[in-house]
Amino acid sequence: MNRLKDRVAIITGGANGIGLATAELFLKEAAKVVIVDLDKEALEKANTQLDHENLAYCVADVAKTKDTYTYIDFTLKKFGKINIFFANAGIEGTSKPIADYPENIFDQVIAVNLKGVWNGCKYVIPKMEEGGSVMITSSVAGLKGFAGLGAYVASKHAVIGLMRVAALENAGRKVRVNTINPGPVNNDMMRRIEKDMSPENPDEVMKGFESSVPFGRYAESSEIADMALFLASDDSKYVTGCMHVVDGGMLTA
Predict the structure, then answer these.
(1) ∠183-120-177 over CA atoms, to 5°?
(2) Is Oxidoreductase a UniProt keyword of this protein (predicted)?
(3) What is the pLDDT of residue 205?
(4) At residue 211, what are phi and psi to the nearest 5 degrees?
(5) Are 190 and 217 in contact (CB under 8 A)?
(6) CB burial class (10 A; 0-12, 13-18, 19+) of residue 20?
(7) Are strands 55-59 and 176-182 parallel, antiparallel or unpaired?
(8) Strand ranges in the chain using DSSP code E only, listed in sequence order
(9) What's the pTM value of the predicted model, to 2 decimals?
(10) N or C: more exposed end of the chain, with fewer CB within 10 A?
């Protein structure tokens, strides 16, 4: 229960889904946690739900440099240091072929999913303590294509490249950098993807995704959080520059 004792973690996209589940687990493991999100109401709800003295929240847009400084400065003033950074914020965009994909939505996906991670690597990592851990949420969509999800797939491939470079550049300070690559997760993002792909029959989209997973089901956010805990803890002290797939066997099917 004390695997993260005396460590301070920043979790972007922390108000819901994987981010919220990870915050809850990190708190149980004795970390101090700052959750970051653009949605103030969702952050306030998460703060009330978790109700922990070692939890704080900060409203910020990860795609903006000034907001990145805001959540870094907030964390340092609140808890004095940064040991763990989980670059988890992400959006799915829409489901359309590349030829029909709206440019403004493409730009939004790249801004949050890629620029947000870039900002974290550029501005957060230099402020981290030596021996820290960085986790970046990629996806199985960072390792294969999915028709209709071009912007999302492109962004999730791109952050794997960033991870590899950041792992090399920060190895001298023993800062580990890895991606987590979930398959479909039972959360609000997948509900939106299912409805976007088939407004009239989202349940059939879910069944289609489930049939592509050998385990026959979506992951729970808590199961992705378990991988984040491994990467944040000393259990992974010699692990960097790697992709960690949590997909129930989806990529082997």
Answers:
(1) 60
(2) yes
(3) 87
(4) -70, -20
(5) no
(6) buried
(7) unpaired
(8) 8-12, 32-37, 55-59, 84-87, 133-137, 176-182, 243-246
(9) 0.96
(10) N
Q: Which amino acid is at 30?
A: A
Alpha-carbon distance of 14 to 82, in angstroms, equals: 16
pLDDT digit string, tens, across residues 149-194: 999 999 999 999 999 999 999 999 999 999 999 999 999 888 998 8
Kindly report, residue by residue over 40-83, the tens digit of the pLDDT: 999 999 999 999 999 999 999 999 999 999 999 999 999 999 99
Query: Could you tell me the maximum CA-CA distance found in the chain, to the nearest angstrom?
Result: 53
Q: Which residues are catalytic?
A: 152
pLDDT of residue 16: 95
Domains of the chain: which residue ranges? 8-183+220-245, 185-218
Q: Which superfamily is assigned to 8-183+220-245 in CATH?
A: NAD(P)-binding Rossmann-like Domain (3.40.50.720)
To the nearest whole number, what is the mean pLDDT of the chain?
96
Q: Which residue has the tokens 């957060």?
A: 124
Annotate 40-101 with DSSP letters as a single string: HHHHHHHHHHH--TTEEEEE--TTSHHHHHHHHHHHHHHHS---EEEE--------B-GGG-
pLDDT digits 0-9 by tens, 119-159: 999 999 999 999 999 999 999 999 999 999 999 999 999 99
- Asked if 43 contacts 16 with a C-beta cutoff of 8 angstroms, the reply is no
- Orientation angle between helical segments 202-211 and 188-197, nearest 10 degrees: 110
Whether residue 253 is predicted with pLDDT greater than 80 in this model: the reply is: no
pLDDT at 193: 87
Q: Give the tokens for residue 171.
A: 């190895």
Amino acid at 51: D
